[in-house]
Design brief:
Elements: E1 5-7, H1 12-19, E2 30-33, E3 38-44, E4 50-56
Length: about 70
Amino acid sequence: MCGRYSLASPDPARLRERFAIGDTVPVRPRYNVAPGDDVLAVTTDREGEPRGELLRWGLVPYWAKD
């Protein structure tokens, strides 16, 4: 398993409306998100409000030196 996925929506405004992520994070279709890419994620702040931010997609195994 290579861990790839896609992020596709006909209208990025629908994602902003649904998750209230604001205008600070770019929303663009991604049809081949691979490990190591920065991707849009919806998280919450300390008050529990949703926010959008860019996170690195992937997994570093416990035995890796980095």
